[in-house]
Specification:
Strand 1 and strand 2 form a beta hairpin. The longest helix is centred in the C-terminal third of the chain and has 13 residues. The chain has a three-stranded antiparallel β-sheet with strand order 2-1-3. 13% of the residues are buried. By secondary structure, it is of the alpha+beta class.
Length: 67
């Protein structure tokens, strides 16, 4: 099974919204990738967990929040 990170990233330019995602690379790098978007503020990693099956866990989180 694949190991990777599940993360929550926020940006003060979009208060109340967060990005919940997964990656096999460092979430800090993912946040920096998002900095190339239109926001004038840097993205911040608020939470990260190194887990087995990051995709499956990320999907479960999205489903729980949708419900």
């Amino acid at each position: 099974m694949i190991k990777g990170n599940v993360y929550i990233i926020s940006n003060k330019g979009t208060p109340g919204l967060v990005k919940i995602g997964y990656s096999t690379k460092d979430p800090q790098l993912r946040a920096k990738e998002l900095d190339s978007t239109a926001s004038p503020y840097p993205h911040v990693v608020d939470y990260e967990a190194y887990v087995f099956g990051p995709y499956e866990i990320e999907q479960k989180v999205h489903k729980k929040l949708k419900d």
